[in-house]
Structure prediction request, 695 residues.
Amino acid sequence: MNKILVVLFVFLTGLGAVQADEPLRVGLLACRDVARTRAQWQPLAQYLQEALGGSVVVEAYGTPEMNAAVSAVALDVVITNPSHYSVLKARSAVSAPVATKVVREGEKALSSFGGVILGRADDPQITTLSDLVGKRVATPSVESLGSFQVQAFELLAAGVPIPQGEQILVTGMPHDRAVEALLEGRVDVAFVHTSEMEAMVAKGTLDPASVRVLHRQEEPFFPHATSTRLYPEWPVAVRPGLEADRARRLTVALLTLGEHTELAHALGIEGFTIPADYGPVEEVLHRMRAPPFDAPPFFSLADLWGRYRSAVVAVLVFCLLLGAAVGILEWQNKRVRQGRLRFSKLFEASPQPMLILVEDRFTECNAAALHVLGCRSKSEIVGRGPLDISPEIQPDGRPSRQIHEEIRQAALGGQSPCFEWVHARADGSPMITYVCINRIDLDLRPALVCVWHDITRSKALEAELQRSNTELEHFAHVASHDLRQPLRMVSSYLDLINRRLGPDATGEMRDFIDFALGGARRMDQLIVALLDYSRVGSLTTPRESIDLATVVREALENLRVATRESEARIDLGTPLPTVLGNRIDLVRLFQNLIGNAITYRQKTLSPVISVSGWNSGKEVVIEVTDNGIGIASEDQDRVFALFQRARTDEPREGTGLGLAVCKKIMTRHGGRITVRSQPGRGSTFVLSFPKGAGG
Prediction:
């Protein structure tokens, strides 16, 4: 027997070593296009490889394919939606979540969502949930948690029967179809995911005054209208057999991914946060009898009655129930202990400061929190409250106590607020932190997990940068005035010399004077262009929704003389999108692009310039196309740099700053500018604005 145990131990040890060398396999649920999802999330594999020091494979799956992969233990990590996670958890025994995805909605970082119930604003008969009895409903999918199930759960809670059969119109994606069915009168209400109504309003496809949000919930820190309570975003879970050290390092890497903003932007998310409570999701699925709670019991009392005598049946049933209850309790206790141990390890190992708040008092903190606060032991923190280490007034002028209570109530209500806060270190010095709070349950009591990010240095650098930019702007204005004044004097005296010489000046002397005057004029143009470049982004006026068609027409008005002299034809796409931005900078942007197209035209052709635009994925794309001389491939990158111009066969007027100004304007708007061109066939300049700035 001992020899057998030794052999088994060696085998399992060797197997563990082999497994440790295998790549970490990450599976991601693709809502629509599997190939696009796989390509979008490939940067995560590179990031995790560097963070974990081993091979990582990221693959996208449809729902059936992911179910099969999890059942075959072909995946180590699963990233999926909350309802599908509940199915995998029940049927394939995936672990409790180790992290929750955080998405970016405009200026807000959100780790929760809800559902919206919309009625027509002009329908006085539907104003409350009780008015929905027997009414028709449009939804993208009855299997969607955010587009049907959470709304139906609210109806059940209000005692309103859920629509069935012909009462439901399934429109399919996108959500716009459900809202269109409502406005066309084909249904009485529409169920959609939170943020979809606001997205339609931003795109200009929905008049907010035409719809009414039923059963509206008050969620102070949630930016969208919602008719339901909020539920956590997508969880990240691992298979139970994954090595503990590997799971710990994976979790730390995911929780710190948000610090890599370019990577998070490429993935289309804000990052990950500590795992949320997915119990409310299971409650909805259970009440709705949705998978995994849709299967009937395996056995019936009638079967047992027909096989055994009544007394024996009673005893067996009692024993079975008792054994099942004991087993379930033991299983649940084991999972709670494992989860508590796993959370404790992750909590202590986290490089981010983390604290646990129970009844407005800190009950635990990790080493990172002690370090940033300058404390020697936990006894200096435990037992105190957030207000004990905060000034009475926050930088926005509001009392810390008032803000703290609002945030605490929101977090206890299920939200996950993130905000800036000023704390005081042990030595009394201020510390600016970015705080994210999530609710968890510890020992049957609600608790709050606070994650801090020390941004004191970045705030100081931001203030210093602002001061430096202000000084540079002032310098640019002063320098331009002081430099142009001597140039005007040079030009004036050269002109006087030219007049004084009159007919006595030789041809060579006139050439010298013309060269000098031309150089002074070009120097003046260069100074003006440099001043124009320095002014980009310096305006303090708030950004607003800008109609690009109006901006382009204003730019053309400024170029009226050049357009008329060159006989240029300008075509505008209809309609052009709207973007969130600064009108003066955007006019300058299109004036430079169209002016360049006129300047670099072909000798034998009149300029033909078209401006078109559309919404594409998460971006607003604008294209400015001309039939000019074009740009060689080796020049297409450098034309956006300062004082760089495309090489041409003959000299053209310009300073080499026009496209540099365009690039700076796009950068200030969070976008980018690129060019496609072939010599002799014209150029197309592509402007990509982030969708959050678009309409």
